[in-house]
Every structure is written in structure tokens, then in C-alpha cells.
Amino acid sequence: MHDTDIARADPAELIACPQCDALYRARMPEHGARAVCARCHTVLIAPKRRAGMTIIMLAAAVLVLVLGAVWFPFLKISRQGFVNEATLLDAAMSFTGGPLLVLSLAVTALIVLVPLARAVLTIYVLAPVVFDRPPPPGALRLFALSEALRPWSMAEIFALGCAVALVKVADLAQLSFGPAFWMFAALVFLTVIQDRWMCRWSVWHALEQGQAARRERAPA
Amino acid sequence: MSGAPHLLTAREAGLVSCTRCTRVWPAGTSACGRCGKPLVSRDGYSLSRVWAWWIAGLMCYFPANLYPMLRTQVLFTVSEDTIVGGAIELAKYGSYFVALIILIASVAIPIGKFVAIAWLAVSVRRGSRARPQSRHRLYEIVEYIGRWSMIDVFVVAILTALVQLNIAASIKPGPAALAFALSVIFTMLSAQAFDPRLIWDRDTSDDGTDRA
């Protein structure tokens, strides 16, 4: 078995499964192939060709769509001559008054601010790396932040919420989709695709090496 | 072919791994030199934090079901709906599918999550006859699905923003919306506090390849 020599190897060459702690020698698989943990089947490394550029483009598109989706109305309602249009910001800020204001802020963060922040962080961290420049200052910490925010980015859940709301008030009034709804639907797709393209290990590895190169170049 | 192959873990090799960026360091390193995350071979406080968030989540879940989620006013009649009441109302009007989505997202998933997290935490302490593969799978499902419970809060937000048609119809949020959102957030934190490596540890020692 490889047991004894893997324990003696340089830790920098190893990778441990974050879910079950199994230890492997980190080796970059072919583009499009995936290195999977043999014990718990967590995907460890999954590089894709030209992934960096693709991810940056997707992040830029997400940025534009979120900003657009905030300003345009996404649902329009009418009943007995009364008409109302709601923008994303209206929905996010709809819990007004008292303790429900906290909820407004939380909802705004989950559906607008967190997706926006993740797109900006992704571009800031990865763009220099893709164009063969050293990573920007604080790149490792900021990528860590972006990763920590991942479960709190709930744009796709909000999109499904729109569909449920539509059915819920169907008997109460007439509803129609505004432009922001379609932007939001596109946003959901882009976020999912971006997640598929992102190989986290490759990013950490590239950032670490870039940081080391940067330190060598700048003598004390 | 039962069970996974036995693999050397970072802990057995005298190393400690970073669960955020998967980098491996010599045992005793206090923080990951790559991403800055504090390193612990096994998080001893993991289960205490899991239970703390779990209890907080459960305490919010009761008011979330008892108080009204929506206050609907159509012309001069006002009706208040709890989560379950709203779903029943929908089913009465024939939208069984949406009623089912709401029941799954706001009743089945939260309760399932409470049970699943509690069982995982207990099984790590007491041991379990279930294979670690299945328990790990359960953990992954809990982690993935937890966020989707937020859908009901978003629906309330959308309806409140949208249905403001003077006296013809208007919708206001009820106190349950806040309680429910908190319950979802607390259970997400509870699941995140769980250290899945604990699931696999007992498996290793059962093999006889014990490490003092």
C-alpha cells in the first residue's frame, strides 16, 4: 500500500477530502475529468479547459443581470382597475415596521447583496490570474469569503418563489411577468453553470502559487 | 464489496487538513497558511454548536407554525393564514401541486431536517449500525436542501410587495414570517456546524486499525 510513503510526502503535495479526511496525493486530472474521493464520493478536483475565462464572463453577466433585475419590475398585478408593479427591491423591502424590518434586510442580503458580492469577488480574485498576472492583494482571504457566502446566495430559490406566488394569487387578481422576472430566470441558470465550472482546488492552488511568486519578486 | 476501501486519513498520517481549501499541514498547525481558516483535526465543539443552533431553530419553528404567515384583505373581509392553513386553502381551490410544494418546503423539509441532524449528532456519539456512506449521504442531502425552506418567506415577501391594490386586495406579512426565516437560518447554521469527518472516524476504529 501507499500508506507509509504518503505519510512521508511533502504536505503541500497532498489533498485531504474535506468531508471524510481521506488523504490523497494531489494530481491534476485531465481537463474535463474529475478526481473523486474513493470513500465518500466528494468531488475533489475537476478542472475544465478555459474555466477561468468562462467563470469571469459568467460573473460579469450575473453582475449586469442582478443590477438590471433590481430596477425593472418583475411582476405586475391588476384587479378591478387597480394596478401595481413590484420590483425586486420592493419585494426585498416589503417587511416594514418593527421587528419585520430585520427580515427585510435579511431578504435583501440573500437575494441581491450576496449574489452581487460573490460576482464582484469572483471577478476581482480571478481576473488577474486568468490574464497571467499575480493575484491581487488579499486574494486568498477574499476567495475564502466568497466560498463562505455560497450557501447564503438564494437567487434561485427566490425565482421559484415567484412561480409559487403567481399561482397563489391567481384567483385573487391577474398577474403578469415583467422584464426583471426573465432576467432573474437567466440569473438562476448562470449561477448554476458558474458553480459547475468552478474547480475550487485549482483556484486555491493557482492563488497560492501566485502569492508565492509575488513574495519572491518583492524583496524585503 | 461492502463498505468503502480503507484509506489513510490525514489524522492517522499525523497531519491536519483544512476543510475549506483541502490543503494539508503538519499536526499542530493552528491556522491554514493558504486560506486562513483555523485548523482542528476534529472539531471537539462541533456537536455542542450543532445542538445549540438546533434548539434555537426548533424554538423558532413552533411560533412559525402557530402564528399567521399572511394577512389577506379582500374588499372588507380579512383572513389570516398559518403555513399549514394556507396550503389547505390552496388545495381547496384545486391547486394541489402548489399546496404540495408549500407543504414539502415548509413542513416536511424542516421537520425532516430536525430529525436528520439530531440522528446524525447522536449516531456520531453512540455509534450506529447504518453505514457511514448512507449517513454521509444523508448529511449531504440536509446541507443541500436546507436553503430551499426559505421559499415560503420569499413568497410572503413577493405577495406583500405586489398585492397592494388599495381596498380591492392587500396582503400583509404576519409574525410567523420572521420566526420561520430565523428557524431556517438557525438549522442551516446547525448543519454547517456539524463536522462530517466525525461520521467516518468510528468506521475506522471499528476496522481494528485503531489509533490510540
TrEMBL record, chain A:
The chain crosses the membrane at residues 55-74, 100-127, 173-193. This is Paraquat-inducible protein A. InterPro entries: PqiA-like. Keywords: Membrane, Transmembrane, Transmembrane helix. It holds the Pfam family PqiA. The keyword Transmembrane helix applies.
Automatic annotation (TrEMBL), chain B:
GO terms for cellular component: plasma membrane. Keywords: Cell inner membrane, Cell membrane, Membrane, Transmembrane, Transmembrane helix. InterPro entries: PqiA-like, PqiA-PqiB_transport. Its main location: membrane. The chain crosses the membrane at residues 51-70, 96-124, 145-169, 175-194. It is found in: Cell inner membrane. Pfam families: PqiA. This is Paraquat-inducible protein A. The lineage of its organism: Bacteria, Pseudomonadati, Pseudomonadota, Alphaproteobacteria, Rhodobacterales.
